Amino acid sequence: MAIPVVDPDRYDEQLAAKRDRLTAQFARFNPPSLEVYPSPSSHYRQRCEFRVWHEGDDLYYAMFEVDPDDPKHKTVVRLDDYPVAGRRINELMPALRERLLDNPTLRHRLFQVEFLTTLTGEALVTLIYHRQLDEAWEAEARALEQALGIMIIGRARKQRLVLTRDHVWERLAVDGRELVYQQVENSFTQPNAEICRSMLSWARDVTAGSAERDLVELYCGNGNFTIALAENFRCVLATEISRTSVASARENLAANGVDNAVVGRMSAEEFSQALRGEKGGRRVAEFGLDDYDFSTVLVDPPRAGLDEDSCRQLSDYERIVYISCNPDTLADNLETLTRTHEVVRFALFDQFPWTHHCECGVLLERRR
User: Fold this and answer.
1) Which pLDDT does position 368 carry in this prediction?
2) What are the backbone angles phi and psi of residue 232, rounded to the nearest 5°?
């Protein structure tokens, strides 16, 4: 892994390179002009993880730089701050290190630290160890929580000690509304909160005018898009395979007062079979699929993209909203989807500045 080199003066240059690359890569699908949503040029990630490197009496945060010519060769890079990480994380990094240096109980066999923060300053810190945690550790960790104004989770083999709670509450201002999201430790959440706001606003815009029809959503995670889009539709049916994410999504629906959305636990592949009438059973019956009138489908798949069957299933809908963290698999999937649909909106969300990674949003509508 290459550690991003942050140079705010060159941000526009790196964003333009991504814009040009995507424009060329997707030209064959004849999309409209690319909509570009820039990120803050530094301090944009609300969650990060670091190895803890011990050298005698010293310890520090570290990442590994991999030699591209010899992937087995890794160089340890010391990090006293990290411009990629949000400002709250950068505030906590030296303060936490200083406390750990002077505390034999907390530093003993500590090998990784994970930060999960919010725009409003909540911070959950996970300390991960190569040893079992005991009452002495818990007492010192609780004192550390108080000293730094954070929440702490301790992890070790077959141990997970939650001292206060296992989540933070993110608050995002989107189109004049405040949306609140429970974000659980060790579960997927969008790392760049400002870009997340842009993605939600864009998705709301491209699905406007759908109040009489329904939305079906695959890979809904903790309900990130579900909550933002619910008021655009009569009803929303969303699915996710992760138990933790499903529980969090339901918590988020309640926290935002959303009463026209249902989140069920099922893989995207199984749910696609259910939508085609090829899968039955109790869980499918509970969805009440006959009660819905889906006009739009939203997918936010992992980097591997969608399988061929899921792509064919999407073609049944008038409108497809595809959020992608991997342009290569998105392009592969569009080879199938554009047989029946055309690209009418195309967006670049710079979720990961200073890397080659791009987040894309595509709206497809059925060809007339």
Assistant:
1) 82
2) -80, -15
Mean pLDDT of the chain: 94
Is the predicted pLDDT of residue 179 greater than 70, yes or no? Answer: yes
217-245 b/e (C-beta count within 10 Å ≥ 16 → b): bbbbbbbbbbbbbbebbebbbbbbebebb
**Catalytic site includes residue 325:** yes
Q: Which run of H or of E encompasses 90? A: helix 87-101
The answer to whether 359 is a known catalytic residue is yes
Three-state SS for 26? coil
> What type of residue is 111?
F
Strand pairing report for 359-366 and 319-324: antiparallel
* Residue 106 neighbours by CB under 8 Å, 6+ apart: 99, 100, 127, 137, 140, 141, 144
What is the arithmetic mean of pLDDT over 121-131?
Answer: 98
Q: Are 227 and 181 in contact (CB under 8 A)?
A: yes
Q: What is the residue type of 51? A: R
Catalytic residue among 48, 196, 311, 325: 325
Q: Which DSSP letter does residue 325 get?
A: S
Active-site hit among 170, 185, 194, 359: 359
Of 26-30, 203-207, 231-235, 302-306, the least confident: 302-306
Q: Which tokens is 57 given?
A: 């009496």
